[in-house]
């Protein structure tokens, strides 16, 4: 999501880069889905429209899937970038500014603060990738994918108070579950609220599943059809995902405010 560098010099005799347009297009599709979701959220939570609530309820079940695509592609990109450390630090700065900005909006009566959203989670994953990717590259991609799938399943219900599976689980103590400071890993008190919330557990394992899949590219084994451009508008959105993600919420708020004002004037 946050890095347009979905290209590599693998497989090019002249050393030039191959652009993986399919990955851009998938990421662009995920970005557009998130724009719709956040638009419905804005209509429901800020403008208090019943239509917004209805649309949000309808679209909400799909959110984990397009967000998962978003995160997976960012994991793939972690194998193609020159420095996950630099990427992670830059994105962390953006995420912290987003928290500051949304916290400021709460002072204006808008309950939209983001304490640990998808940008925060991806920034931490990129920083972890700087250390994890070198040993990960020694593994077969399938092994990495299987391990990540298992860890995702084991930590999926951490917010419900346990790790493991319904038939075999480790229940977390109440003292742990009531902590106010473990929200980055998915442990939240009842009073916790974040307008956008993607904790490290279980979502980081989607990121590193993407990093495992990216090992095929690192070994020059991505299929040739990944490089073919099919949907240029989606590819454009995918290449500029971070900028679009940052700008789309204020743009949506401005658009809806203008429409609301015009309706009042017309009435």
What keyword list fits this structure?
267 residues, mainly alpha, two-stranded antiparallel ribbon, two-stranded antiparallel sheet, globular
Description of the structure:
The structure is a single chain. With 267 residues, this protein is mainly α. 61% of the residues lie in helices and 4% in strands. It has helices at residues 21-45, 50-59, 63-77, 84-106, 118-136, 141-155, 174-177, 200-218, 232-239, 241-266, and strands at 7-8, 18-19, 162-165, 168-171. A two-stranded antiparallel sheet has the order 1-2. Helix 1 packs across helix 3 (63-77). The relative contact order is 0.19.
Helix content: 55-70%
- Low-pLDDT stretches: 11-15
Number of helical runs?
10
Gross morphology: globular
Assign the structural class, choosing from mainly alpha, mainly beta, alpha/beta, alpha+beta, or little secondary structure: mainly alpha
Strand content: under 5%
Topology:
Elements: E1 7-8, E2 18-19, H1 21-45, H2 50-59, H3 63-77, H4 84-106, H5 118-136, H6 141-155, E3 162-165, E4 168-171, H7 174-177, H8 200-218, H9 232-239, H10 241-266
Helix pairs in contact: 1-2, 1-3, 1-9, 1-10, 3-5, 3-8, 4-5, 5-8, 6-8
Concise summary:
The protein has 267 residues and is mostly helical. The protein contains 10 helices and 4 strands; from the N terminus they run ββααααααββαααα.
